[in-house]
Design a protein that fits this description.
alpha+beta; three-stranded antiparallel beta sheet
Length: 144
């Protein structure tokens, strides 16, 4: 009789443990999908802000429109869990800011906002500044 009770105890323990393990695995998979999508959005925002920073000779409005067109296609097909994706782009004379926002219904609803910014480059001004710094250093050498 004692042997039969011991065999049944394994079944009872398994019936309590298995649902808990399935829940933990489900939560782990959902978090992995969420973190993957955050990483994708962060890299897309960084890539777009870098592209925008290189567009020196475009006006702010032209650059914003171009970046918004690029943003939709850049993240398409790469996201696993996020839906309802929104993109915002802000371009000023000094910097480019790209932000992605998304939502997933997993785990009761998770929201993500990834934002990256880059300083707009002015290659001609940078070269001019470096050239002037070089002259200043050469001039300092002659004084000594």
């Amino acid at each position: 009789m004692k042997k039969r009770m011991q065999k049944g105890s394994l079944t009872v323990e398994a019936s309590v443990l298995i649902p808990f393990l399935i829940f933990v695995v489900f939560v782990f998979i959902c978090l992995c999908l969420y973190l993957h999508d955050r990483s994708v959005l962060s890299s897309c925002a960084a890539e777009l802000s870098g592209k925008g920073a290189a567009g020196k000779y475009q006006s702010e409005k032209e650059l914003e429109a171009w970046l918004l067109g690029q943003a939709a296609g850049l993240a398409r097909g790469k996201l696993l869990a996020l839906r309802e994706l929104e993109v915002s782009v802000k371009v000023t004379k000094q910097k480019v800011v790209v932000a992605y926002e998304g939502y997933t219904s997993l785990l009761g609803g998770l929201r993500v906002r990834e934002q990256e910014e880059a300083r707009r480059m002015n290659p001609a001004a940078e070269i001019r500044r470096e050239h002037q710094m070089g002259r200043a250093w050469k001039g300092m050498g002659k004084i000594r």
